Amino acid sequence: MRVFIAGVDGYLGWALAQRLAARGHRVGGADALLRRAWVAQMGSVSAVPIAPPAERLAAFTEHFGAAMPFYPLDLRDHDALGRALAAFAPDAVVHLAECPSAPYSMIDFWHAESVQSNNVTGTLSLLFAMRDHCPQAHLLKLGTMGEYGTPDVDIPEGFFEVEYRGRRDRLPFPRQAGSWYHWSKVFDSQNVAFACDLWGLRATDVMQGVVYGTWCPADPRLSSRLDYDEAFGTSVNRFCCQTVINRPITPYGNGTQRRGLLSLADSMQCLTLALENPPEPGEYRVFNQLRDVLSVRHLAELVHRAALECGLTARIEPVDNPRSEAEQHHYNPETARLRALGFTPSAPIGEELRQMIRDLLPHADRIASHADRLDPTVRWRPRRPGGQATDQHLTARPNGRNPE
Ligand SMILES: NC(=O)c1ccc[n+]([C@@H]2O[C@H](COP(=O)([O-])OP(=O)(O)OC[C@H]3O[C@@H](n4cnc5c(N)ncnc54)[C@H](O)[C@@H]3O)[C@@H](O)[C@H]2O)c1
């Protein structure tokens, strides 16, 4: 299969390119290298060093025996995207190319606008480009479990059966996102579903849980990034980075918030299953992609235990929750579809966490040198009106649009 990965330079994308190539698929990719710039803007670095794009591509060719056609473009450059899709002629397009950070989108108007315009316009550009250049290709689009919020009822896979005044229908399950970023993913979901209905495109919209884990093959040029700053580091990845530099593990609030999670290896397995079992033309399907549902406090305890097993000293110190979110809530998402396709979770979470800590330990100095980036400073609700950003890394506007 010919698979075009939009966002191939990112955390998931670089790992997925290798997993697919190892299974004999032909991989091409696009990326505007924005994630590298966003993390630098937050004053941070990837804990695992990542090679420049040219070195990554050279390593890919050496290890997988074929060069990866790479298109250094922004998805919103619609003409360039169209040319790339026409040249590569994909059977499937994986769309990862979005800004994935809720805290980044909550900094101020400029960041909210930049995340929503990047994500919503980029997806719209891709939908039109697929219509015009590869209408038969399967779109595998990454959404997030955060689109659903935390409703007080079970969460089905995208749709629910409703009966009202004697009539029945299958309707999209209501979305109750909790950040400007998560709302951008909701808008994407609506647009992708509409494009399938309107033009007969086929798509899988993946409501993915929080991903954790390192991707560190023997050749360091093949390593995937792993971030720990407050905006681009996800909870478990941040907790593990905290333990390797002997800083306390800091769950937000009372830690009873529950989330769906899965390891990077499991995410790769699920995305491969979705690609190798495509939907029918015109079909829009939704997969809830997660392995475990755990509370943030339980996660902190699991990381704490893994750290002790790796010979580290670790401690847990909760901090004020900077987000606006329910801490006590029901949470029961359905996850039948990927399991029906054969998803079998890989290593138990404790094993994954120990491996992650072992992969991070050689980079402890690198993490320690940016340790101040771990502390949350972005607040969902400002403490005083107009009093949002004070951290120097947050006051600069994205895309260089600073006032004169
Ligand atoms: N990592 C997680 O825990 C997680 C969980 C749920 C959903 N997701 C979703 O999965 C996808 C991938 O996540 P990730 O963690 O790999 O993020 P990432 O930031 O590491 O990767 C995204 C890549 O896309 C590129 N990109 C962004 N906007 C672009 C644009 N307009 N044009 C071209 N390239 C662009 C970035 O430079 C980056 O390399 C995202 O859509 C994210 O919302 C991630």
The gist of it:
The protein is α/β, with parallel strands linked by helices and 404 residues long.
Written account of the structure:
Residues 3-288 form the NAD-dependent epimerase/dehydratase domain. Belongs to the NAD(P)-dependent epimerase/dehydratase family. It is an enzyme of class 3 (hydrolase). Its EC number is 3.13.1.1. This is UDP-sulfoquinovose synthase. This protein starts with a strand and ends in a 9-residue tail after the last helix. The protein is built from 14 helices and twelve strands. By secondary structure, it is α/β, with parallel strands linked by helices. It has one domain (2-380): NAD(P)-binding Rossmann-like Domain (Rossmann fold, 3-Layer(aba) Sandwich). Strand 1, helix 1 (11-22) and strand 2 (26-30) form a beta-alpha-beta unit. The mean pLDDT is 96. A seven-stranded parallel beta sheet has the order 3-2-1-4-5-8-11, sandwiched between helices. A three-stranded mixed beta sheet has the order 9-10-12. 38% of the residues lie in helices and 15% in strands.
